[in-house]
Specification:
By secondary structure, this protein is an alpha+beta fold. Helices cover 45% and strands 15% of the residues. Helix 2 packs antiparallel against helix 15.
Length: 422
Amino acid sequence: MKKVVSSVLALILLATALGGFGTAVAETAPQKVVFWYNNSGDEALVYEEAIKAYNASQTAYQVEGLSVTDAQKLIVAMSSNEAPDVIKISNQDVVQYQANGLLENLQTSIDAEAFDMSIYSDKSIEANTLEGAVYALPLSAYTIQMFYNKDLLAAAGYTEPPKTVEEMYDMAVKATVIGADGNIDVLGFPLFPYASARQELIYAFGGRWWGEDSVPAPQNDGILASLTMNVQYRNLYGIDKVNAFIASANTNRYTEQDMFFAGKQLFRLDGSWLPTMMQNFGSTVNYGITLIPGTNANPDLRGTSRYETDSIAVPVMAANKAGAWDFTKWLCGMEGAKIIDVGTGNLPALKALYDDADVLAKPGFAEFIDALKLEKGIQYPKMADFSEYTSMINAALDEVYAGTKAPADALAELADLSSSLQ
């Protein structure tokens, strides 16, 4: 009898040892898998819907979900034996957490079972890969493109949106409206949101804040050219006037009084969520969506934008790694990803969903997916000090936007300040 028991135990141990996190072993009671996601409200309900669908799809595991929006709570738990088995984070979190050794390397399991990573876009895989190894599977995608007010564009004498930033600047000047009080009533150039001016307006010129090795490199011609055009527009209408408009725009962002929703912006660099927001707030603006312009010298840069993902990872301290891997594959697969992307209104990382009718039914998604297909997304640098570097960039830009420092001088000082970051 003892020999029989020993043989069975040996077979179970062998099955567990084979490949990555192992193969699920059928048990009388399903094994618990704890999943923490950082969504709340209606979005949390979508994740619970996905969990319910997964639990109904198999009998080996039972996922228990929990909404945890406190990042510090997650970090503390991941560093202890109280870690959840699966977490939903951003791809930039993947970089930061793995810098501290908090995440399981998924590459072992991917290789062991020849899991097909080609189902995801190239950029989504790149976003979750560190030193040649995948540490999370992509669930949803985020990118930015250009919205434009068709009526304001027509009033300025144009029938088509710009394909280059030089065209965009000319259109912006003609469309800018100064009110009777001397303040800007309609902003032509897309200086707001600030994050888009810091990123997409820089990328359009071929500028990057870091080199290929993820080391800060703020002194490059693309950044300087972008900031020069930015300052040129501000000086044309008055720095104080432009900043006053942007301050008001920032206060009312994503509300009923949002400047673009109210017809006060010609161009807006923003995300795929904007059409649904406009619909929900009852905006009647006649808008279009187009690729972010390139330049006369580099028209191939058209459509270049930041690219981020929502990602599903397994903490290194997870108690049930086999169950975690099984759920991660399902959630980032066709059924799970569709529930999440359609339910939360996020773009897909899974290429098969690019042509899904329910996904394309979302306002604006067809145009954004066309942009995703170009694979021109810009990844954030994979540096541990990225948050600190971003703060330094913003401080430098504040000086440029206020007119207290010339772009070249601000970039030189930023290069010195950031030289020790890693």
